[in-house]
Design brief:
Strand order of the largest sheet of chain B: 5-6-7-3-8-9
Bound molecules: adenosine-5'-triphosphate, magnesium ion
CATH architecture of the largest domain in chain B: 3-Layer(aba) Sandwich
Oligomer: heterodimer
Radius of gyration of chain B: 22 Å
Number of strands of chain B: 13
Shape of chain B: elongated
Largest interface: A-B, 41 and 48 residues
CATH topology of the largest domain in chain B: Rossmann fold
Structural class of chain B: alpha/beta
Distance between the termini of chain A: 39 Å
Number of helices of chain A: 11
Largest sheet of chain B: 6 strands, mixed
Distance between the termini of chain B: 41 Å
Strand content of chain A: under 5%
CATH class of the largest domain in chain B: Alpha Beta
Strand content of chain B: 25-35%
């Protein structure tokens, strides 16, 4: 056994005194550190997918659509299909990122990395664990949306600077999905739920919330249904902001809808996190 | 509750339920600052449940609990500031490097990065992991992981370190290294709470301990006092070919304090083991094998947690 070389008193207790800084920020640091080992894959989905989507949907499909639109241009708000579809793809991607970031990573932090548990053994409280992770998801959403709006600008799919308003709007859309999803991920025991949610909820929303075509194209009853979906509100909000409508009552309605989802998610998540982490 | 400043943990009637399961059914103990306090017990005795309540990670169901002078129900975060926890399941981030695990844990306590770097260097040395600093935790052996978890718990200079089975699954050499390190901590005034299944570990390390069984404390004291109070100073273990232990116990009568059948052996407890063995031989019984030894915590444990008792 080797005798250890260290200054006498190295282990003498010295508990830190005074106020602890905002604890959720400390929990947030974990996600930054953890990102350092996974950033490559993440960069790919941040830069490459938006480009592919805009190229294929906006330019490829859009060329065809524009060609046949003729006198019906008003359906798409009198712009090109690319201009129409870009805010749609933006908010739909935000939804998917929000769902992804709040599913496997949450379950992993509980079950595999057990990083939530590690945090709970320190001055960090359960609400800080939650808010720290949500803050990370918010940052990631924001950054991805920023990149998307930038790439859209390069495609001339939007007009700056007003398209910048789409960034917080899409971030809010993503959070509207992420927060309830985080609550659910902390609640469920079986990851099979993730693919069910994806198949039965996310994919239909992606396709039928006005992302790729105006809701008016749907049969009446489906139209009504689609108007209640959260993604519809995200898509419509982004599209309105991108076309220069800023302070309208409808926009306020969309924001209120999405904010309610976030708030309800927080209430629900505080419950499921507490149940899971402090038994 | 009236607590002296030198009591670091005080529990009265402490209980923990998980729905129908009564994991801890009302236990009392108080732990002095600077001592090594052990919780000994079989699987499911309620040790981990108790550790989790002390470390303010799990709310108590009933009873009183004060840790570092505060009530965990109100000041969990403040209490945890002074605690270093070594949970039974490590809770290390297996995808991160050894150093990153130490680093982020220090950050959770809001320790400045520079200070963390300095402490991590020594702690890696302490855990004999210096050359593995950049390895992913995934690639460490169980013993290395355990040592890293202990090192991690020390990054914040805690006054109370709670170790839930610090050496389970370690080879003898690794266990001795951990013991050595725990002595070092004790010498510098850290209060240690340890749970273990290993009797020798408890006997070696603990100033005082409690034996838990099915959610209750069934024995308490210093290792030596527990042994002398509960069993006796010495033990004779005999193995008989005919296995007729009951009649032997009968014939020994009052000459032994107690007897117990353990598997294929009979353990006879008394003040003087050699004398008991002489008596057995004088009865004309020739054991297939016999052994006289000092009673250990193992005997206490087996007695208190109830195994095939004869007497
Ligand atoms: N989260 C939980 N939900 C339900 N029951 C639990 C939970 N945690 C522990 N228990 C039960 O409480 C009892 C005590 O468990 P505990 O983990 O405290 O025992 P232990 O002494 O640490 O055992 P071991 O030596 O196996 O680690 C057991 O019956 C266990 O099944
Ligand atoms: Mg246990």
């Amino acid at each position: 056994m080797t005798e250890l070389e260290y200054a006498p008193g190295f282990f003498t207790p010295r508990v830190r005194q005074g106020r602890i800084r905002t604890r959720w920020l400390l929990a947030l640091e974990y996600w930054f550190l953890q990102y350092r080992r996974a950033w490559r894959g993440s960069i790919l989905s941040t830069f490459v997918f938006p480009t592919l989507y805009l190229a294929s949907m906006g330019l490829g499909l859009g060329g065809l659509v524009n060609h046949h639109l003729g006198t019906h241009a008003a359906i798409l708000g009198n712009g090109s299909y690319l201009t129409f579809v870009a805010p749609g793809i933006l908010s739909a991607s935000a939804m998917q990122i929000g769902i992804n970031e709040a599913s496997w990573p949450v379950m992993g932090a509980i079950r595999w990395q057990r990083s939530y548990h590690a945090q709970c053994a320190t001055p960090i409280r359960i609400t800080d664990v939650l808010y720290g992770h949500l803050a990370w998801i918010t940052l990631k959403l924001f950054a991805t949306c920023l990149v998307f709006v930038g790439i859209s600008a390069a495609f001339r799919a939007n007009s700056l600077p007003r398209a910048l308003f789409e960034i917080p709007a899409a971030t809010l859309t993503g959070l509207g999905f992420a927060v309830p999803m985080a609550a659910l991920s902390a609640h469920i025991k079986n990851d099979a739920a993730f693919s069910t949610i994806n198949r039965l909820l996310i994919v239909p929303l992606f396709l039928f919330s006005g992302t790729f075509f105006p809701l008016a194209q749907l049969p009446g009853s489906l139209q009504v249904l689609a108007r209640f979906t959260p993604l519809y509100h995200g898509v419509t909000l982004c599209r309105a902001l991108g076309s220069g409508q800023l302070m309208t009552l409808t926009n306020l309605g969309h924001v209120a809808y999405l904010a309610t989802m976030v708030a309800a998610g927080v209430v629900f998540a505080r419950k499921t996190y507490t149940r899971r982490l402090s038994r | 509750m009236d607590v002296l400043p030198d009591v670091i943990v005080e529990a009265r009637g402490l209980q923990k339920f998980f729905g129908e399961v009564e994991a801890v059914r009302g236990i009392d103990f108080s732990i002095q600052r600077g001592e090594v306090f052990g919780f000994l017990g079989p699987n499911g005795a309620g040790k981990t449940s108790t550790m989790r309540m002390i470390s303010c990670m799990s709310p108590r169901s009933a009873g009183k609990l004060l840790v570092r002078g505060h009530d965990p129900a109100e000041s969990g975060s403040e209490i945890r500031r002074g605690i270093g926890l070594v949970p039974q399941d490590d809770a290390l981030d297996s995808e991160m490097s050894v150093l990153d695990n130490l680093h982020i844990y220090g950050r959770y306590f809001d320790i400045p990065r520079k200070e963390i770097r300095a402490r991590a260097k020594v702690l890696l040395e302490f855990a004999q992991l210096t050359d593995r600093a950049d390895s992913k935790v995934d690639n460490l052996s169980g013993g290395m992981r355990r040592r890293l978890t202990i090192a991690r718990a020390l990054i914040s200079r805690p006054e109370l370190v709670i170790l839930d089975e610090p050496t389970t699954g370690l080879d003898p050499q690794a266990r001795h290294l951990v013991w050595e390190r725990l002595y070092q901590l004790r010498r510098e005034g850290v209060t240690l709470i340890i749970t273990t299944h290993y009797m020798d570990e408890a006997e070696q390390l603990c100033d005082r301990l409690v034996v838990m069984d099915r959610g209750l404390i069934v024995g308490a004291g210093t290792p030596r006092s527990l042994i002398e109070k509960t069993v006796a100073r010495e033990v004779v273990e005999v193995r008989l070919d005919d296995g007729n232990y009951l009649s032997l116990v009968d014939r020994l009568g009052d000459h032994i304090d107690r007897a117990e059948i353990l598997g294929d052996r009979l353990c006879c407890y008394g003040e003087d083991g050699d004398q008991i063995l002489d008596l057995i031989l004088a009865l004309g019984i020739h054991p297939a094998s016999s052994l006289v030894r000092r009673a250990t915590l193992e005997d206490v444990f087996l007695f208190l947690t109830g195994r095939s008792l004869v007497d």
